[in-house]
Amino acid sequence: MAKDGRVRPEQRWPASLAGVAAVALYATLPHQMTFGPSWLAPALELALLVPLTIAVPMRHPGEARWLRIAAILVIGIMSVANIVSLALVIESLLYGGTTIGRPLILEAMQIWLINTLIFALWYWELDRGGPGKRRITQHHPPDFLFPQMDTPHIASPDWRPTFVDYLYLSFTNSTAFSPTDTLPLTPWAKMLMLAQSLISLLTVALVAARAVNILG
């Protein structure tokens, strides 16, 4: 840790890699499961994500406010696009669409994976004021309680969660539909986890289960 109380900036590339993976998964969905031209949302997302990754490869407390707003905008576009895709899949099931069997299972898996990646990005970008603010000692109050915070002797004194920690949080919440080792502390964190669990539950219960029944 530096003398001014700061720790090393956090690298953006793990989050950017997750973002690119989410864009790639969305881009391979059938066109009937996307809203508008299938290239529109991926193009908008990459048009923001790529310049952000190049311009600010490290997240630090002194970064411009508009850079963080742009990062949140990217995640917002991803979220809306994925929710629309889930709604279209459900509509296809309810009103006799043409998507059946194995294709439906693959689409459900893609939407579930995209959802997991998107919420990992949300948690990483919003917790304690963002990745940059978490790099200083006097950061915002925590929105998530990680085990390393509750039992400090198992981690270094300057431990901070990185994107991998939020990805694990998102994955476990998508599979268990509830907190596992990391607890939400603030209302927005609880509501985000609730929204993620609801989307995952709809994907698994209404789409994947229905697809298995079709195959049977």
Question: What's the total count of β strands?
Answer: 4
Spatial ordering of strands, largest sheet: 1-2
Query: Radius of gyration, rounded?
Result: 19 Å
Strand-and-helix sequence, N→C? EHHEHHEHHEH
Strand content: under 5%
Characterize this entry briefly.
With 216 residues, this protein is mainly alpha-helical.
Structure description:
Helix 1 (13-27) runs parallel beside helix 3, helix 2 runs antiparallel to helix 3 and helix 4 (101-126) packs antiparallel against helix 7 (187-215). This protein is mainly α. Helices cover 62% and strands 4% of the residues. The chain has helices spanning 13-27, 40-55, 65-94, 101-126, 147-150, 163-176, 187-215; strands at 10-11, 58-59, 144-145, 183-184. A two-stranded antiparallel sheet has the order 1-2. The protein has a two-stranded antiparallel sheet with strand order 3-4. The chain starts with 9 loop residues before the first strand and ends with a helix. The chain is globular. Residues 1-6 have low confidence and may be disordered. 35% of the residues are buried.
